[in-house]
Structures are given as C-alpha cells and as structure tokens.
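To: structure desk
From: M.T.
Subject: fold request, one chain
Message: Could you run this one when you get a chance? Sequence is below, nothing fancy, just the single chain.
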Amino acid sequence: MRAAITGNILTPAGWVHGEIGFDTRIASISGCAVDPTSNGDDYILPGFIDLHVHGGGGKDVMEAGDAVRTIAAIHARHGTTSLLATTMTAPADDIKLALAAIGSAAARRGKGEARVLGAHLEGPYINPGKLGAQPDYARAATLADVHALAALAPLKLITVAPEIAGHLALVKELADAGMRVQIGHTAGSYEDGKAALEHGAHGFTHLFNAMTGLHHREPGMVGAALAHAQYAELIPDLLHVHPGAIRTALRCIPKLYCVTDSTAATGMPDGEYMLGRQVVMKCLGGVRLPDGTLAGSALTMDQALRNLVGIGLDLADASARVSTYAADYLGLADRGRLAPGAWADVVVLDRDLQLKAVYLEGERL
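Reply: Done. Structure tokens follow.
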C-alpha cells in the first residue's frame, strides 16, 4: 500500500519541503527547495546504515541461531534500516556457526527487522598484538579459507592486518575477487597502510582504535588513513574518539562514515553481557572488559547522528555520514538516499532530532 509523508525531505540535490510517496520503494518526491531551519516541520532523512554491528537487545552475533534477527529488530527501532552483522575473532567453528545464521538472516528480512546486508568479518585475520577487545584467536588468512567462509554468508567487509606475513598479497587477491577489505586491528606502519591501499584495500576499521597512532616522525596507520583514505569508519560515541580527533578525520577523509560497533549491551540497562566468548560490562554509557578496555559500544545510530550535530556538523552532512557514504562504500545506489527508485528506507525526526517514525523498505515500525 502506498504511503505519503510530508516535511523537510533531504534529497541528493538538497532539502525539499514537500511530500515523499512510496511503497517498498520511493515512487515520488515533490515540493520546493527549502532551508529546513525556516520552518518547524519534521526532518525526513534516509534510513541509517551501520556496517559494524556485534549485538543489541542482550544478544550477540556470535550466539548464532536467531540472535541476528533480535539484533536487527533492536537497531531498527533506532532508525537503522540496514546493517552488517559483525563477527569476532574466535575459533573457526564459532565463526562458521555465526556466518550461517547471518546468511539465513540476509536471505530473508523479517517483519520489523533492519535489512541484514551480509557480514563484516572483523576477525580472525588481525594482529595478535592489537586485539583490542577481541579474544586471542587471531590467525593468518588464506584465500581458500575466506572463500569457504563466503559460502556461508555474503562477506561484504573483511578486516585484515596487512603487516601479517602473506596478508598484503591476500589483500590484492580479495580485492581482485570483488571483496571489500578494510585495514584494522593492526600494528602496521604508515608504509604498511599505504601499501595495503595500493594493493586494493578500501578503508579502515574503527579509525584511531586498535591501530598505530599518528606521530610526526612515525605517522603510523592513522597517518596512512588521514593522508590517503577516501573512506574509513569511525565510532562517534565520544568515548572511542575525542571530538577534536573526529573533526581532524572529517577534514582529511572525504567519505568518513560512522558505525556503532554496538554490542549486546545496546538498548539494555547497565550490567554484564557477552561479546563473543568474553564478559563485558555496560556502565556509564560505555562497554568495557574487566580491565577497563573499551569493548565495542552501546551506541545507536540515531544517537550517532545527534552526536555529530552536537560537535558542529550540519544535519545534511551528518546524515550522509550515518547513511549515504556507507551505501556508497558498499556500492549500493538504491540505499542511503531519498530518490525515486531507491528502497523506501526512511526516518522521520522531530526538531530535536528524536525519532518519530521509521520505515523499512516501506514497512512502518
């Protein structure tokens, strides 16, 4: 059944005050160009796209089974209309079970669930010296190993530490096979990062975190990202990255986009939760291991948008960084934008940027 909503609509050409009509896809947008601050109507934005989701609603992706569906439903209630379910470094059998469940969820979207686009394989191809909150099951990758995992679920992103022996050649093999490789959980140098990009790597996993930092004589992996990256993901919970560092990255990386790196604690009260095989604690807005290490987040994408606006981005720019750029990164021309023919993934926000409505491929929550 066709629906129509009115307000300040963010289109690829700019703001329009008028009406957007849709069923599962957007059929029409009509109205006049507008400065959205000139009236008191709602903001109508593309649904949020989160490419790094470990959990939510008390459930963790590594639980397998129906956990991914619970996670997709929790994030949908916060405006995320599509996502990548993200694995952790773990024993091979655990990863295979998780990917099989992700593959099932990706094949069919359930009512009230965000679209699961596929998997982000964050581990196990990382540096054991830069685990962050990942358990110690890191191992080197082979092309055959990756192809075996890709048979279980669509692998949309693969995080790799390029300095591990054999990984630089693998980055090129994966890129040549059409897979999207990110640099992350890495002790590599600036030169390692630059070489990985030249071999076909596409971006960086949770920029600044679990990688070598920027020093003026040793620019590190952060320096490689700031100097050369077109895309990188960043966690804007204002705990993982200082607002000043976020603004630095915004000046350097044209299509910096935001992720939550959310855990089972997302949408839940303070307490203990699982992240893969590890116990984590949600307290004071953060999620940490017992030793205090940040272990993912409890962030949702609607709060990510508000945080970006809070540090000085205008709403259109913030919207692109929680939606459009992630779609562009995955090559999805029909998501992350409000335009005729695109999926009707739509969020409606009031003047305080609080969610009023979410539409998932035309389905209203």
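Reply (cont.): The chain is about 25% helix and 25% strand. Let me know if you need anything else for the meeting.
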